[in-house]
Amino acid sequence: MQGSNHAVGSQNNLEAYSLGLSQEELMLEHSQAVSSWIKVDVNCGDDSLVSRTLQAKGSKVNGFDLDPPKVLVVDDHAASRMTAVSLLGMEGYEVIEADSGSIVVELVTQKQPDLILLDVMMPGMDGFEVCQFLKQDEQTRLIPVIFITALNDRQSRIRGIEVGADDFLTKPFDRVELAARVKSLVRQKRLNEDLEHAEQVLFSIAMSIESRDPNTGNHCERLEKLGQAFGEYLNFSRYQIRDLMWGGYLHDIGKVGIPDAVLLKKGKLTPEDWQIMRQHVLIGEKICQRLRSMRGVIPIIRHHHERWDGSGYPDGLKEDDIPYLAQVFQLIDIYDALRSERPYKKALTSVEALSVMQEETDSGWRNPKLMQQFAEFILSCHEKE
Ligand SMILES: [Fe+2]
């Protein structure tokens, strides 16, 4: 690795070693850096914070040329921080530096990086604490975190996995490895963000439907909470609970395709109106089916109007052919509707609502065992209150 060219100073030799660069490569990159890099110092008014931006003039920026990704490098050792900074700068990233864990949280909110390169051992808040904090926060959990560990530091890696690290790199950095891992995680993060945006659009549509119908109040929000509580009561998995909660907002998203003349009609719906209204489950399924993250919610959207005896729609499914989450969701949906005041009816008490639901169950519309569990769940909630 070490060449015989003594024109490069000892500091650069040290950096070259940690970057995994040959003497020739170092000289070439040194001259390129001088000729084609701009450096902008950002004064954030905090002594403990070092922040700067490095950008390659006219570079392709690793395929992200229109919007260079931001990488936050957190390390209390200036030398190793600088190594990562110069390497990432060469790859076209905008690089932000921090020299302690305790300022990361503030800096992340301020700069919204696409990836964090995090040292493990730092005075004050260490890398594990920082990572755990970020991964528990809804706003920052999607930012990939790469831990910088010493070679063979198995303990740190295990602890890193526990706190949600996305990847690990060892010092001294291998230039190609660093570039490849950062690039791949940034891409993944951006894909996840796009997906989140698509989900947000769907939720916004669902909310706009609720606001079109002034009779329902905060029906969706109540369904979300009730779904979470009943899901936990039934010992559902985290994903099943999430699907139930999402179902609270999205189950009637297909009503976006139902004309106001039918959706908001005062008085009784005609058989033709009902035929149109029933389409909402199919329209809703179509809207959501292209998003993989919606897979678990689609059975709720399509089947929340099926009945245990097969007299429901759209498929007339019977008993356990009805997806279980749709059966569970249906009870929550009906209960909340009965408990809410509408222009044409008063709000029922929980005992009255359960009694109506039990009558419907006795006439064959609901799963009797599940109905019993739901009644027990509601009563247990009252006991807690
Ligand atoms: Fe519906």
Task: Describe it.
It contains 16 helices and seven strands. Helix 8 runs antiparallel to helix 9. The protein folds into two domains: 182 residues, 3-Layer(aba) Sandwich (Rossmann fold), CATH 3.40.50; 172 residues, Hypothetical protein af1432 (Orthogonal Bundle). The termini are far apart. It has a five-stranded parallel beta sheet, with helices on both faces. Strands 1-2 form a two-stranded antiparallel sheet. By secondary structure, the protein is an alpha/beta fold. Strand 3, helix 3 and strand 4 form a beta-alpha-beta unit. It binds fe (ii) ion.
Furnish the topology, listing elements before pairings.
Blueprint: H1 10-19, H2 23-36, E1 37-41, E2 52-56, E3 70-74, H3 78-90, E4 94-98, H4 104-111, E5 115-119, H5 127-136, E6 145-150, H6 154-162, E7 167-171, H7 175-212, H8 219-233, H9 238-250, H10 260-263, H11 271-277, H12 280-288, H13 298-303, H14 324-339, H15 350-362, H16 368-384
Parallel strand pairs: 3-4, 3-5, 5-6, 6-7
Antiparallel strand pairs: 1-2
Helix pairs in contact: 8-9, 8-14, 9-14, 14-15, 15-16
Fe (ii) ion binds at residues 251-252, 280, 304-305.
Query: Which class do the helix and strand fractions yield?
Result: alpha/beta
Enumerate the spans where pLDDT stays under 50 for 5 or more consecutive residues: 1-65
- Overall 3D form: elongated
* Most strands sheet: 5 strands, parallel
Are any ligands bound, and if so which? fe (ii) ion
Determine Rg (CA atoms, Å). 29 Å
State the name of the first-level CATH class of the largest domain.
Answer: Alpha Beta
Q: What's the helix-strand series?
A: HHEEEHEHEHEHEHHHHHHHHHH
- The total of beta strands comes to 7
Distance between the termini: 71 Å
CATH architecture of the largest domain: 3-Layer(aba) Sandwich
CATH topology name of the largest domain: Rossmann fold
Walk across the major sheet and give the strand order. 4-3-5-6-7
Number of domains: 2
What portion of residues belong to β-strands?
5-15%
